[in-house]
Amino acid sequence: IRAHLTVDPHFTVGPINRRLFGSFAEHLGRCIYDGIYEPSHPTADEDGFRSDVIDLVRELGVSTIRYPGGNFVSGYRWEDGVGPREDRPRRLDLAWHSTETNEIGLDEFATWLQKVDSELMYAVNLGTRGVLDALDVLEYANLGSGTHWADQRVANGRSQPYDIRMWCLGNEMDGPWQLGHSSAEAYAQLAATTAAAMRQVDPDLELVVCGSSSADMPTFGEWERIVLEKTYDCVDFISCHAYYEPKGDDYGSFLASAVNMDRFIDAVVATADSVKAVLRSDKTINISFDEWNVWYQSRYHEVDRITDVHSWPVAPRLLEDSYSVLDAVVFGNLLISLIRHADRVTAASLAQLVNVIAPIMTEPGGPAWKQTTFFPFSLTSQLARGTALELRLDTPTYSTQEYGDVSLVDAVATHDEGGTTIFAVNRSLSEEVTLEIDTRALGVVDRTEAVSLFDDDIHAANTLDDPKRVCPRVNDSAQIAAGAVTITLPPVSWTALTLS
Ligand code: AHR
């Protein structure tokens, strides 16, 4: 099977914003406690943070990290997590039926972020709280000194404000599972008032209003329209969230999950631009795709979920999905979709980071290891530089139950003065594909470097017992000819090919 690609640096989509490679750390399961923070671990540093995890997060190459939730944030009192640790209350976390000890809060998390060299993106609670609490945490985080909350931060040993730029106005307020879930009209009103108030403190904040928690929500589309009509002038981003998992053994549809993500993004862009037209606005609202991943959500509902009224564990094992090669190929394809929309998706957060639907796993007192999904993320973050390119891709198609006929190969390219990188997936379950790339517009190409992620066993995964079972391999099938490069893409594979 052959597919054909033409790459031309003149046909650009838009600049690659580093914020596309963000992630998300929620107070959920063992993400924060027994993940990022484990003071008794042999690698723990002076602040109780695991150094092996810090090293892996740095290697992963994450830019912005969204915190502290997620569903958790809708019941969170941020001030519980600051000040002397011994005074911090233990609270019910209704979202995950757990106990929140509040050992980690904004100050500790900001310290950890410095160690991993990432930017903080903070979500305020608009589920059970409102304007005043958002203003208080903004003052605590961003103002110098001389007023109550700023002085509290200084008293807590942080003289320098954090200068957080990106703020989420609540989380998934369209979801009936969300504490304080409301109608689009009610949420839009609260988000608009909160945004306006926060801008009275700092007009340059970058504010993210909640879009739909999935394109399958019954309110999808109308939610975006109503929310944006009310908030358009005072927000910068609308959020998208999407999680994918196979239905039974329908791997063909699962491998085409990025088709769904493409359509989701296109629909939200169309809705935002339609509101722009109706409002006669000059401003463009972009997307913060601030939760995306493969997530075996059915497993959470059937196995993990805690419901016993007397059971409120601290840091239980929740959402600890183990990712296969198949999952990683779908995941790599989702990154391709995000890059393809780099002009309008200018921020994104892989949900999540450690232990909870995560590229990094840890064992208490034991090792930390990379899941299969670690590799497409770290390689894309490292290699996607400069500008996203529009490609001409001629590929065979295959038929899926969920999305009809879809491309067998999907690809995107990025380009800067150092070279061009093509990210490609072969969605075929059985056939390899020869990808022929027309490189004439790139000038002389005399060097190729390629790595692929694939395996004879598409269900192979890295586990505590076998943490290095899967890793990317050098793909040495690339061949350079006059004005062309060919490369073989194995079945169910993700590839990064750099041309220079
Ligand atoms: O990432 C896990 C959960 O998924 C988040 O808490 C929530 O926002 C979403 O439903």
UniProtKB/TrEMBL annotation:
<keyword id="KW-0119">Carbohydrate metabolism</keyword>
<comment type="similarity">
    <text>Belongs to the glycosyl hydrolase 51 family.</text>
</comment>
<dbReference type="InterPro" id="IPR013780">
    <property type="entry name" value="Glyco_hydro_b"/>
</dbReference>
<dbReference type="Pfam" id="PF06964">
    <property type="entry name" value="Alpha-L-AF_C"/>
</dbReference>
<dbReference type="InterPro" id="IPR017853">
    <property type="entry name" value="GH"/>
</dbReference>
<feature type="domain" description="Alpha-L-arabinofuranosidase C-terminal">
    <location>
        <begin position="290"/>
        <end position="493"/>
    </location>
</feature>
<protein>
    <recommendedName>
        <fullName>non-reducing end alpha-L-arabinofuranosidase</fullName>
        <ecNumber>3.2.1.55</ecNumber>
    </recommendedName>
</protein>
<comment type="subunit">
    <text>Homohexamer; trimer of dimers.</text>
</comment>
<dbReference type="Pfam" id="PF22848">
    <property type="entry name" value="ASD1_dom"/>
</dbReference>
<keyword id="KW-0378">Hydrolase</keyword>
<keyword id="KW-0326">Glycosidase</keyword>
<dbReference type="InterPro" id="IPR055235">
    <property type="entry name" value="ASD1_cat"/>
</dbReference>
<dbReference type="InterPro" id="IPR010720">
    <property type="entry name" value="Alpha-L-AF_C"/>
</dbReference>
